[in-house]
Automatic annotation (TrEMBL):
Superkingdom, taxonomy of origin: Eukaryota
MF annotations from Gene Ontology: metal ion binding; oxidoreductase activity
UniProt KW keywords: Copper, Metal-binding, Signal
Record domain Tyrosinase copper-binding: where: 87-104
Lineage: Eukaryota, Fungi, Dikarya, Ascomycota, Pezizomycotina
The keyword Metal-binding belongs to this UniProt entry's keyword annotation: yes
Leader sequence residues: 1-17
Name of the featured protein: Tyrosinase
Pfam families, per the entry: Tyrosinase
InterPro entries recorded: Di-copper_centre_dom_sf, Tyrosinase/Hemocyanin, Tyrosinase_Cu-bd
Source organism (scientific name): Triangularia setosa
PROSITE patterns referenced in this protein's UniProt entry, alphabetically: PROKAR_LIPOPROTEIN (PS51257), TYROSINASE_1 (PS00497)
Amino acid sequence: MIVGMKNILLCASAALAACTPTPPTPIVRKEWRTLTTSQKADYINAVKCILAKPALSPEGSPPSPHGVISRYDNLVYTHIQQTYSVHYVGHFLAWHRLFTATYEKMLRNECGYIGAQPYWDWTLDAADITASPVLDPVTGFGGNGPWVPDDPTSWFPPVPGRTGGGCIVDGPFAGLSDVVHLGPGDSLAYNPQCLKRDLSPSFASRYLAMNQTQLTLSQPDFGWFNHIVEGEPSFDASGIHGGGHYGLGGSFGQMGDLHTSPADPIFHLHHANLDRVWASWQNLNPSVRLTDISGPSLMMNTSSPNVTLSWPLSVGVNGVDTTVGDVMKIDACGTGGSLCYTYDSFYTLL
Ligand SMILES: *[C@@H]1O[C@H](CO)[C@@H](O)[C@H](O)[C@H]1NC(C)=O
Ligand SMILES: *[C@@H]1O[C@H](CO)[C@@H](O)[C@H](O)[C@H]1NC(C)=O
Ligand SMILES: *[C@@H]1O[C@H](CO)[C@@H](O)[C@H](O)[C@H]1NC(C)=O
Ligand SMILES: [Cu+2]
């Protein structure tokens, strides 16, 4: 009775906010180069923390039949396992939106990171990605690896314009021979590797400049939009998605590996910007586009049923299973969706 009285008194006073549930405020994702040096260091330290933390069971070791050692590996494992069900499908962007938001939560809840997931606006760097602040040897993720010749035995053609291929030589992840534990390709066995990059400045300038981003934003409906984001599985008909993956990963870097790409921490900055392009496209006509979803449910299979808002999404042990409809609005914060972040700026049609 006395406690109840006290609550009523509190609610009537300045502490009103404690009684009326106010919706949470979205956290704000910012472009990497706009972070202060100490904010960049906080982010990199949180990434190092997830890389060092032991994996969650049952995938994790010990005892593990796989190479899932670190908490970070849980994410890479999830991506490898679902590679053929979340690329070149209608839920490609929705799944990767959830994946990046899941990583953001891991950094915040498990490693004390207080910021939001930064993004890489590649349109600012497309003219020369080698000079990107994201690749800075001191405040960024380090740059290219030394030259490795084309592999003549590979069934996959070399990425045009590739310039590196070896272990990265600078930045916070250089000199580590076991920072990557899974892959290459779909291998889930323990295979300690360094982080590799194989920059292709020409591939990046072709697909990551503002012109390609504008072409993407100008698409009339989600089906076309998604198709232009992903492009065709061909170096001659790629899109902004492949532009970032092959521009940084080339033939030998993890970023160029369809399965193991999240093993490079830059993956999440690239995918945050792809997500920002989608959110920007949605913002151009929100009443229609916040519910517009379509595209094949099976990889590149135009006869498979179109994906709908009730299509299921899973990130394995890293988060709770949900649906496409739940992630359509990035700043829903519990009102019609569980995501709760936004961007400091969006692209507009020029
Ligand atoms: C955009 O510009 C780049 C570099 O100038 C060029 O290679 C590419 O073909 C252009 N893309 C489009 C869609 O116009
Ligand atoms: C998927 O939807 C598109 C229009 O958004 C339509 O043209 C296509 O026929 C549909 N595909 C299937 C398999 O129903
Ligand atoms: C494409 O999807 C349809 C419908 O689900 C299925 O019958 C067909 O076998 C699939 N094609 C391939 C090549 O998997
Ligand atoms: Cu992916």
